[in-house]
Specification:
Length: 566
C-alpha cells in the first residue's frame, strides 16, 4: 500500500530549500500551498498577502493607483526576502515568475514548481474573485492570452505538475509525488541505493495535452491516487489481452468498478498480429455496441500492442475520447506507453497507420512485472539500453554495472532504470512531440533494422520487438563505425553488453520460418516511416551518448552490414 506520509517524510528529509509555487491565477497555489505547508510542518507565505500587509492596500488598488510595474517591483523584493526564510512554501502571483530577475532568484534559491491546469478550470475558479487582469475582456480569452505569453517562463520551473480536475488534497498528493521524483532523479548513486520510493510521479510536458506518469508498486490497486476526480463516474472501456486478463485485469476491473458508472472489458489475442485493421474495427464496433460516449474513458491494460491499438481506437472513436495507459510489460512501460504514438500495422509495414494522441495518464505498476518471463524482461531492457546510447553515456555505464541485477528483479535497480527511461523519453517528447525537428526520431535508434527483421519474422512471436531492437542497435553501431563516427571499441562495448545479458545480437540468432535474404530486409526498410525522397535514413551514434540522423545511406553499405550478421 502506497502511503503519502512516506512521501512527505522523504521531501522533508531531502529538500532543504523553499518550494515556490508558480502558475496562472486560479490554479490553486494558495489553497494547495497551505495544505503542503501543513503536511510538511513548514511556514506558508502568499506573496500577494505579504505585499498587502506591507503597503496597507489591496492588490487591485496597487494596480489601479500605482500600475503593474510598481506592483512587480514590490513582488520582486518580497520574494527575495521570503527566499531567505529557509524551507517553506511560497505562493507566487501569476505574473511574478515572468520577471527575469525574479525568475532567476527563484530558480537559484528554491525548488520552483509550475502548477498547471486547463483554461476551463481556471475560468471556473476565478469567476467570483477580484482579479485586476480579468476586469476587461472575456475571461477565457484573457486567461488564454496570458498563458500563451507566460508558458515559456513557467516551463523554466524545476517541476511541472498538472491539475486535471483534482481536488486540493489530490493536487497536494501529486505535488509531493512529483517533488519526490525530482529529488530521486537528481540523487547520487549512493543515495539511490538507500532511497527507493514506493511511488513517484512526473509530467510529460506537451503543448496541447500534458499528462502525468505514475511509477510505483501497487498502483493498480489504488486508482484514487492517479485517476483524476473528473474522470470518475464515467463509462470505462478496458482493452486487454488473454495473457494479462487473468493475471492483472480481472482484479483491476473489481478495483475500478466503484469509481466508474460502468466498466466493459474486451480481451484480445496477444501478439503483434492483433495490431491489424480487422482488430481495430472489432474494437470500434465493440465500443459502439456498448454505448461509447464523448466522455467515456478507454483503459489500455497490457503491453505495447494493446497500448497502441487502444490508443488508436481512443483517438478515432467519436473523434477522440480520453484514455489511460496501464502498461504491464517492461517494454511498454519504458517505451510505447509514453509519448502518444498510437498505431496499427499494415500487412507489410509496422506502425504505418497511426496518429499522435496523448493519454490522460500513464500508470506504471512495478508489481505487474514480477510474473513476466525473462525473455520479456530482456525485450524491455533493450529499449532501456537505447536511452543510454542515444543520450546518456553515464546511464549506459550504470547499466553495465547494474543491468544483471535489474533483470533479476532487484527493486532498486528496476525503479531507477524505469524512472530514468521514462524521464529521458518525456524530455525528448516535450521538445519534439510530433517528430518535426528530428530530435524525437533519435528514439528510433536501431529500429530501422529492427522493423525489417520483425516484418520478415512474421509478427508471430518468433522475434520480440526488444529482441529485434537489440540486433538493430548492434547493426546501427556497426553502421555508425563504417560511416566514420563510432570507435570500434564502442561497437564492441555495445555488442558485449547485450550479448552477455542474453539478448540476441545477430540476424543469425533469429529462427525465421522461411529463409530471409538481404534484399528481403532492404525491401522492408524502404517501407519504413523514416525513409524519404533521399533514400534510407538511419539513426547513428557519433559516440556513445550522442546520436544523430543520417540520410541517403548507401544501400551497398547497408547490405554489407546485413550480410555480416546473417
Amino acid at each position: 500500500m502506497i502511503e503519502i506520509e512516506h512521501c512527505q517524510e522523504d521531501v522533508k528529509k531531502l529538500l532543504e530549500r523553499p518550494i515556490v509555487l508558480v502558475g496562472m491565477m486560479g490554479v490553486g497555489k494558495t489553497t494547495v500551498g497551505r495544505l503542503l505547508a501543513s503536511r510538511l510542518g513548514w511556514a506558508f507565505y502568499d506573496t500577494d498577502d505579504e505585499i498587502v500587509r506591507l503597503v496597507g492596500k489591496s492588490i487591485s488598488d496597487i494596480f489601479s493607483e500605482d500600475g503593474e510595474p510598481a506592483f512587480r517591483e514590490l513582488e520582486r523584493t518580497t520574494i527575495k526576502h521570503l527566499l531567505s526564510q529557509g524551507p517553506c512554501i511560497i505562493s507566487c502571483g501569476g505574473g511574478g515568475f515572468t520577471v527575469p530577475e525574479t525568475t532567476q532568484a527563484i530558480k537559484e534559491r528554491s525548488l520552483a514548481l509550475w502548477m498547471d491546469a486547463p483554461i476551463h478550470l481556471l475560468v471556473d475558479r476565478t469567476k467570483s474573485g477580484d482579479r485586476p487582469l480579468l476586469k476587461h475582456g472575456n475571461p477565457e480569452d484573457v486567461l488564454q492570452n496570458l498563458l500563451d505569453r507566460r508558458r515559456v517562463y513557467y516551463a523554466q520551473a524545476h517541476v511541472h505538475v498538472l491539475d486535471d480536475g483534482l481536488t486540493p488534497d489530490e493536487m497536494a498528493n501529486r505535488v509531493l509525488l512529483q517533488i519526490r521524483e525530482y529529488l530521486y532523479d537528481r540523487a547520487s548513486d549512493q543515495e539511490k541505493e538507500s532511497f527507493v520510493p514506493d511511488a513517484m510521479c512526473m509530467t510529460v510536458t506537451v503543448t496541447d495535452r500534458s499528462y502525468p506518469i505514475f511509477i510505483g508498486s501497487g498502483l493498480i490497486k489504488q486508482p484514487e491516487l492517479w485517476l483524476a476526480h473528473e474522470l470518475q463516474g464515467r463509462d470505462a472501456f478496458i482493452i486487454t489481452d488473454y495473457n494479462v486478463r487473468e493475471r492483472i485485469t480481472d482484479s483491476f476491473v473489481k478495483t475500478l468498478k466503484p469509481l466508474m458508472k460502468s466498466v466493459s472489458m474486451m480481451e484480445l489475442a496477444p501478439g503483434e498480429q492483433t495490431k491489424s485493421f480487422e482488430r481495430y474495427q472489432a474494437v470500434l464496433e465493440w465500443m459502439i455496441d456498448n454505448g461509447v460516449k464523448r466522455d467515456s474513458v478507454v483503459f489500455a491494460v497490457g503491453g505495447g500492442v494493446i497500448g497502441d491499438l487502444a490508443g488508436f481506437a481512443a483517438a478515432t472513436i467519436m473523434r477522440g475520447v480520453d484514455f489511460i495507459q496501464v502498461p504491464t510489460t517492461l517494454l511498454s512501460q519504458v517505451d510505447s506507453s509514453v509519448g502518444g504514438k498510437a498505431a496499427i500495422n499494415s500487412k507489410s509495414a509496422k506502425n504505418i497507420v497511426g496518429t499522435f494522441y496523448q493519454p490522460r495518464t500513464v500508470v506504471i505498476d512495478l508489481d505487474t512485472l514480477m510474473t513476466l518471463p525473462r525473455r520479456e524482461w530482456l525485450s524491455g531492457y533493450a529499449e532501456i539500453v537505447k536511452y543510454g546510447l542515444i543520450g546518456d553515456e553515464a546511464f549506459f555505464e550504470w547499466l553495465g554495472e547494474n543491468g544483471a541485477l535489474m533483470l533479476d528483479g532487484n527493486l532498486s535497480q528496476t525503479m531507477r532504470a524505469i524512472e530514468t527511461g521514462c524521464h529521458k523519453k518525456a524530455e525528448i517528447v516535450a521538445k519534439d512531440e510530433k517528430e518535426k525537428s528530428g530530435e524525437r526520431a533519435l528514439l528510433n535508434f536501431g529500429h530501422t533494422f529492427a522493423h525489417a527483421l520483425e516484418a520478415n519474422a512474421g509478427y508471430d512471436g518468433t522475434l520480440l520487438h526488444g529482441e529485434a531492437v537489440s540486433i538493430g542497435m548492434v547493426l546501427a553501431a556497426r553502421l555508425s563505425q563504417r560511416l566514420g563516427y563510432l570507435a570500434q571499441d564502442d561497437v564492441d562495448k555495445i555488442y558485449n553488453h547485450l550479448h552477455f545479458l542474453g539478448l540476441k545480437t545477430e540476424i543469425r540468432d533469429v529462427e525465421f520460418k522461411t529463409p530471409v535474404t538481404v534484399n528481403d530486409l532492404i525491401s522492408a526498410m524502404k517501407k519504413d516511416k523514416k525513409t524519404d525522397v533521399h533514400g534510407l535514413k538511419f539513426v547513428v551514434l557519433k559516440r556513445i551518448g550522442v546520436a544523430d540522423l543520417e540520410s541517403s545511406v548507401d544501400e551497398a553499405l547497408v547490405a554489407s552490414i546485413l550480410e555480416g550478421s546473417m
